[in-house]
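Worked Example 4.2. Consider the chain below.
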Amino acid sequence: MAKLEYVKQLGSEHTASMGNGRNDWLMLKESALGIAVILGEGSASTSLEHADVVCAGIVPALELLMNPLRLIATLRA
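Applying the procedure from the previous section yields the following structure tokens:
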């Protein structure tokens, strides 16, 4: 709940968040952009379900933020 409240304090409409734990799904869902990351320990299915994007690690997730055209292509409807 603390992560969710922090995102709300920052302004969820301007927030990107990353996480892989069971305790991250609320934050991922609330953020304008929620990125689930799959790390060595895996990722909780609830985080995967509520994320906008899933990446195979933190570095690829950060690279998406640094290359917005890739992110736009991923999220295109």
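The chain has one domain: 2-75. The radius of gyration is 12 Å. Compare this with Example 4.1 before moving on.
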